[in-house]
Amino acid sequence: MKKQLFTGFVFLYAAVLLSAANTFQRETPVRQHGKEAGMLLDLGKISMGTLNDVEERKQYLSTVQLEKQRIQNYTLRMVYENAYTLYKQGDYQRAQEMAQTILSIDPNFKQAQTLAKQAQNMGTYGTTSEAQVIEAKFQEAARLYDSGRLVEANDKVNEILTLQPGNARAQSWKHKIDYDIAKEYSRRGDVAEKNGDHKKALDAWYNALLMRKDDPKLIAKIADAENKLRKEQVDEYMKQALDFYNKGQYVESYAVFERITKIQPGDPRVQKYMSQLKNEIAAGYYTAGNRSYNSNKFDQAISYWNNAKKWGADSAAMDSLIKQARNAKENNLRVQQQRLVQAQQAAEAAVAQEEAKAKEAEEEDKPEEIETVSIDDIPGVSPMPGQSLVPGQTSLPGQTLVPGQTVIPGADNPSETLPTLGGGINRVSAEASAASRAKYIEGLDAFNQDDYERARQAWIVAKQLDPGNTDADLGLRKVEELLK
Fold first, then answer.
1. Do domains 129-213 and 230-321 have the same CATH topology?
2. Are the C-beta atoms of 253 and 245 separated by less than 8 Å?
């Protein structure tokens, strides 16, 4: 499916560019801003469909981009050939237009640069012959060559060959200049190699090889320098890998050894180190998983054991441990749920008990009603109008009863008013206890949802409301361990 999709993109992209090339052949182009950019199909905007892995997508897009660039180069070369044909036919305006369009897509297309400039000159100065232009370029190339500016002289000769590919004189100059440039690059490479700079030497020799492709001595120098550079890189990486290993940074050490295998595949010493590292890394993850499990950090333990599997630990054993951790996690959650229910029931019972105590205390503190009787009912007592006595009490000698006054037996001052009975009941402790339990339940609910910070805040408030709340104490200690 992916291959068919990619092939479809490639053919569609090629069709767009070829259609543009044919259009230039049939009619005079009209320059409009943005039209050239529309020739390119932006494959990066197309959905990747079934490609799920990130690395797979990157690799696929990279392949698409390379293929797109190859097709673009091929098609632009065809467009350039059409432009050159128009130039040779004397249609300088259309040749210039096509060359400019090529440059809008690939500004580094040197032949299109030369053709566009020459077509413009020929169109503007029609009386100037091509022979005069070519001769002027030869003179400029000779001047640059004599002054030692070989690269610029080579560019000028390339311009001549762009306008006249079969010009024998230009081809001769091209061969001579290429030889001299290659010789200079080879000399620079020799100097760099003598100074021990293999990379710089290789850069220079590869540039020389572009112009002297069949030089066996140059190829031998490059091969020897490549081997020396590879050995230097391997030695440097080995030092890094062993430093990481000695520090106990096994994963980092393994990554460096992997880089060595890309430079020098099949090295038995490297393979031995990598095998040993995999065993130690797997053992480290296994041990870390055990510690997490014993601390009731079941998710962390599962993660460690999964990593141990990736590094070569026995899959069956790790799967068994992972299953055990999952079961333990479920049991732990079940216990926490039961505690939550029990805490809710305890809180409700505590509230009901406190309400019952408060009601009972209210009944006990209620003032007792004092029964009054008529003085006529007490033999031997003559009360004043409106006077009443406590049942069974007679007036005291010399005592004057005020109408409406109640006399308390044994009181020194019968006119003294009774003290106020039954003050407000203090329920602050009971309410704080109930509120503390409610906050504990709220924190337990947050803990079961893995929201440890909210659980911690709730249990702190529960402790502030009731310092004797041991459940909140236990929860705080547990959540502090998890947040470390």
1. yes
2. yes
Query: In degrees to the nearest 10, what's the CA dihedral of 398, 404, 407, 412?
Result: -60
- Residue pLDDT tens, the chain, 484 long: 444 444 554 445 545 445 544 544 444 443 333 343 333 334 343 444 444 556 666 677 777 777 777 787 888 878 888 888 887 777 777 877 888 888 888 888 888 888 787 777 676 555 457 777 788 888 888 888 888 888 888 888 888 888 888 888 888 888 888 888 888 888 888 898 888 888 888 888 888 888 777 788 888 888 888 888 888 888 899 899 999 988 889 899 999 999 888 888 888 888 888 998 989 899 999 999 999 999 989 999 999 999 999 998 888 999 999 999 999 988 888 888 888 888 888 888 888 888 888 887 777 766 655 554 444 544 544 544 444 444 444 444 444 444 444 443 444 444 443 343 333 433 447 888 888 888 888 888 888 888 888 888 998 999 888 888 888 888 888 888 888 7
Contacts of 170 (CB under 8 A, 6+ apart): 138, 157, 160, 161, 164
pTM above 0.90, yes or no: no
* Phi, psi values for residue 402, rounded to 5°: -85, 140
Strand segments, DSSP code E, in 216-362 are none
The CATH architecture assigned to 129-213 reads: Alpha Horseshoe (1.25)
Which residues have CB under 8 Å from 111's CB, separation 6+?
80, 158, 162
Q: How far apart, in whole angstroms, are the C-alpha atoms of residue 380 and residue 98?
A: 144
Q: How far is CA 167 from CA 116, 138, 151, 413, in A?
A: 20, 11, 20, 146
Tokens in use for 106? 């690939």
Q: Where are the domains of the chain?
A: 1-126, 129-213, 230-321, 428-482
Q: Which fold has domain 230-321?
A: 1.25.40
Nearest alpha carbon to residue 111 among 146, 79, 153: 79
